[in-house]
Design goal:
purine-specific mismatch base pair DNA N-glycosylase activity; 15 helices; 4Fe-4S; Nucleoside Triphosphate Pyrophosphohydrolase; NUDIX_hydrolase-like_dom_sf; two-stranded antiparallel sheet; Endonuclease III, domain 1; globular; HhH-GPD_domain; alpha+beta; MutY_C
């Protein structure tokens, strides 16, 4: 258990002060874990504070509308996390009488909670001896122990899980799990870690074999799809806006947007303007951005242009700017509205 002892000693001297580390209450621990999936602590912390202020208990979260939850989540991305969070809160309140699941196996029944998240909540809230394995853990273990198994392969999860479980001190699983995640997040970072100050630098196989930058091994590359979005900002005579809810499954499900004209490939502004004029015949058409805004998601790059279309009639479906700003939008659209209309 030399590894565990060194790691925990490092953690006790170097850990960041974070609000979810000062409680055994499963509700804020669960909130923090969902928010921090695919999100850095610096970005996630304000959202955690906003959620725990707005929804002090799981009952408050369950009783909120989906739009309230999505609006508070706006800008964090991966919005299915917010919808799953809301669904899980309703399940806890309606099916479990508000009593939070108290074991790893029971936690897996919550929507949006996988093996890693269940292990984190079970160990932090209930001291259940289940090791966490996430990207940080893959990186730390692969480097320190020199494991060259491709982490995108099916056998990697079992191999790393067994090693992490073997290293886990049964008497204090929470502190070990916190420690290895913190070590991966702040010391054994993906790019150019400072190995000169690492507590494992005399034992780390990757450092001895000059493989720090090549571990962990991940052979499967994410294929990125390019999409071309042209948003039509339809304004009526009163200066009100037409917006719509995205109801097709995929990115930004149930968030709001302007009318969307999606092209299968890149096109010139001249061609797009010509098409819009022919289809919509606006009184005034303004190109809001000559250069595409490129919004990068994990599997997609969105090439976005905005066009303002002004009409001389009152549109019954149009909403005021104040009403519009209460709705949840993808952050790229929200930022556009803020910089152009507020």
């Amino acid at each position: 258990m030399i590894f565990s002892n060194i790691l925990i000693e490092w953690y006790l001297q170097n850990k960041r002060s974070l609000p979810w580390r000062n409680t055994k209450n499963p509700y804020p621990i669960w909130l923090s874990e969902i928010i921090l999936q695919q999100t850095r602590v610096a970005q996630g912390l304000p959202y955690f504070e906003a959620f725990t202020t707005e929804f002090k208990t799981v009952f408050d979260l369950a009783n909120a509308s989906e739009e309230q939850v999505l609006k508070l989540w706006q800008g964090l991305g991966y919005y299915s996390r917010a919808r799953n969070l809301h669904a899980a809160a309703k399940y806890i309140v309606n099916d479990l009488n508000g009593v939070f699941p108290s074991s790893y196996k029971e936690l897996l029944h919550l929507k949006g909670v996988g093996e890693y998240t269940a292990a984190a909540i079970a160990s932090f809230a209930y001291d259940e001896p289940v090791a966490v394995v996430d990207g940080n853990v893959f990186r730390v273990l692969s480097r320190v122990f020199g494991i060259e198994t491709d982490i995108s392969s099916s056998k990697a999860k079992k191999e790393f899980q067994e090693l992490a479980q073997e290293l886990l001190p049964i008497e204090d699983p929470a502190i070990f799990n916190q420690a290895i995640m913190e070590f991966g997040a702040t010391q054994c970072v993906p790019q150019r870690p400072d190995c000169s100050v690492c507590v494992f630098n005399t034992k780390c196989v990757a450092l001895q074999q000059k493989k720090v930058e090549s571990l962990p091994v991940k052979l499967k590359k994410t294929k990125v799809k390019n999409r071309y979005f042209n948003y039509l900002i339809i304004k009526d005579r009163n200066g009100d806006f037409v917006v719509e809810k995205r109801e097709e499954k995929g990115i930004w499900f149930n968030l709001y947007q302007f009318n969307l004209l999606e092209n299968s490939k890149s096109d010139t502004i001249e061609n797009i303007v010509k098409h819009i004029k022919k289809e919509y015949n606006p009184l005034v058409l303004i190109v809001k951005n000559e250069e595409e805004v490129v919004h990068k998601l994990s599997h997609q790059h969105l090439h976005i242009r905005f066009f303002e279309l002004q009409f001389n009639e009152v549109l019954k479906e149009a909403v005021s700017l104040d009403e519009m700003m209460k709705l949840p939008f993808p952050i790229v659209i929200h930022n556009f509205i803020e910089s152009n209309y507020l």
